[in-house]
Amino acid sequence: MYKLVLIDDEPMIRQGLRKLIDWDAYGITICAEADNGMDGLRLCQELMPDGAIVDIRMPGMDGLGLIEAARSCGLATDFMILSGYSEFAYAQKATEFGVRCYLLKPIEQSELRSRVEGLCEAWKKRSKQQEQLQASRQAVAQHTLQKFMLDDLQDGAEMEQLTAHLQLPWSTYQVMLLDAERRELESGKLQRLIAQLQNRLGSQHRATVFPIRNYIGIVAESGAEELVNEELSAAEAQLGLQLVLSPGPEVHSFDKIPDSYQAAYERLRMKFLYERKGSMLVYSKRLTPEYKLDTPGFVLMNFADHASKAIIAHNRELLVKLLEETVHAMLQLGWYEKQIKASYAAMYTELIKLLSAADERVRSVVPAIHETVEALDSQTTLTAAVAFMERQLFALCEHWSKDKRNGGFAGILEYIATHYGSELNLELLAELFHYNSSYLGKLFKAQTGETFHSYLDRTRIEKAKQFLLDGYKVYEVAEMVGYASADYLHIKFKKVVGESPSTFRERWRGKPG
């Protein structure tokens, strides 16, 4: 809203001006009134209104005296003179003080509207010009900062302009760099984020925001880190981005700013190795290992062999230790994100190969290799990548342990109890559980006292009884327990139970369980 002050010694005139037009419709609020020139000048100095309507004749300081004093102290307020007919020629002298327009008493509504509309247009035009000028100055300052950060600033005049723009000196200086977590910032989103951060930071800190390389740079006085981090949380939701903030160290001299920038840049370049606090990069304890490996390459080369033995032994503690050793080895070798992820992918592939050689069923219980590698590649930090690898190893450990627990004859019976509805035969079970099919048939007779087929039929019929009592139709039950048709179920059911499925259901329906 534009601000307007009314200055007239007649209360009726001020009241009439308030009611003569709808000021809100023009985006104008009447923020204050005065009944003399001295008070009017004081209000203009305190409130710095966009405009003021001033009576030319007032006791003490008149309208012209007020306007002259306002201009002398640098006020840019637009004044509209309110005068009587006999004073009109006198009022025209005010042109030398830049008076915007004149209103002749008695004031006509149409005349006031016309003057106010013209004034609003002038204000809008001036605001646009100021915005363009500010944007131009900001662009020059940003370009100068970029050159300064990259040690490419040779012109002393440019440095003087930058110093004036930033209102230097400050007490301390800190450079922060901002980037998207997974991809480069798009131009449109980058500019929106720069404007958003500049508005927020500029209102609470000495700070300037600018593009540099493919990042967003921030130079601020101390204490801005947390505010930036908070602002990024909202920006991430608005822009649909995952952002990362790399703070450089504080420096106490403006000519040391490039040092703060270089530290922030190096940290951002190695962002995969750092932890996160919100969007901010924070130091990871892994970057300062407690010990040094004598042969880091040997650790990586033998990981799959050692991990496969730990999995077979169901030794999770050893798996964790082996993973941590790989982290130390990679960091000791100076590896970054791409090398680390590629190495983990290769080690996992080799591990699956070794485990499959011991038990070919491994490949059937783990995700496809390419799916695991893609999921590994999506991890944004070293800590997340190690945790992901740990989950894969623990899953292998669990599958291996479960398979071995179920590897005996009890495992075969458990498999039948859970897969009775699918096609089952001795040949399939022998292949799954690594038996000779002829031997497995004899083992069934010895362990259960009945043939495999009799045992399977009995299992299926017991399940069929439950489904029939639960209200399923006979043809539905046949399909659920693995028989090809309702007629085949009828034959098997009568053989085992001594009556048809329908008779069984009718006889037992309604009886207490």
TrEMBL record:
Q: Which InterPro entries match?
A: CheY-like_superfamily, Homeodomain-like_sf, HptR, HTH_AraC, HTH_AraC-typ_CS, Sig_transdc_resp-reg_receiver
Q: Name one Pfam family in it.
A: HTH_18
Tell me the keywords, alphabetical order: Cytoplasm, DNA-binding, Phosphoprotein, Transcription, Transcription regulation, Two-component regulatory system
Q: Which domain of life is it from?
A: Bacteria
Q: Where is the Response regulatory domain?
A: 3-120
**Main localisation:** cytoplasm
Q: Where is the HTH araC/xylS-type domain?
A: 410-507
Q: 4-aspartylphosphate modification sites?
A: 55
Q: Where in the cell is it found?
A: Cytoplasm
Which SUPFAM superfamilies does the record match to this protein? Answer: CheY-like (SSF52172), Homeodomain-like (SSF46689)
Q: Which PANTHER family match?
A: HISTIDINE KINASE-RELATED, TRANSCRIPTIONAL REGULATORY PROTEIN HPTR
Protein name according to UniProt: Response regulator
Natural source organism: Paenibacillus ehimensis
